[in-house]
Amino acid sequence: MTLDEGRRVRLAEDLAIGEAVAGEPGAVVGFLSLGAGAEGTVERVDGELPESTEVREYQRLKALFEDYGHTMPAASRERLEAEIAALEPAWAAYRERGRRVTVRVRLDSGFVLDGLHQDVLTPL
Question: Is a pLDDT exceeding 80 seen at residue 9?
């Protein structure tokens, strides 16, 4: 899904925002929750969360292996394969998570959610 500024969206799930404190410092009396179905407007799209250093290194080494691995001496190729294998868990986690975009949404109730992941929103 592509989110653009000005697009109407709806929360796809309940969001627990934080604790409500009253009276004595630290006396928790409840928590704030926004229910699924709350609607609002996208004010800003922050873009994709940055890739980690390990993910970028995996991509670089994998491209190097695919382009030049067949021309490398056996020892160099094996070392490169070992480095790629060591970075595969970070790559797998990144692919599982997908490319997430964060947004700022002003709900019709007046609440503003900033840094919200796009996967908790559905377009209207």
Answer: yes
Q: What is the DSSP string of 33-95?
A: EE-TT-EEEEEEEEEEPPPPHHHHHHHHHHHHHHHHGGGS-HHHHHHHHHHHHHHHHHHHHHH
Long-range interactions of 95-104: CB distance < 8 A, separation 24+? 99/48, 99/49, 100/48, 100/49, 101/3, 101/45, 101/46, 101/47, 101/48, 101/49, 102/45, 102/46, 102/47, 102/49, 103/3, 103/42, 103/43, 103/44, 103/45, 103/46, 104/42, 104/43, 104/44, 104/46
Structure token digits, residue 95: 């692919």
Radius of gyration of the chain (CA): 22
- Confidence (pTM): 0.55
Q: What is the pLDDT of residues 31-74, one digit of tens each?
A: 788 889 999 999 998 866 667 899 999 999 999 999 999 999 99
93 confidence band (pLDDT: 50, 70, 90): confident
Strand partners, 15: 34
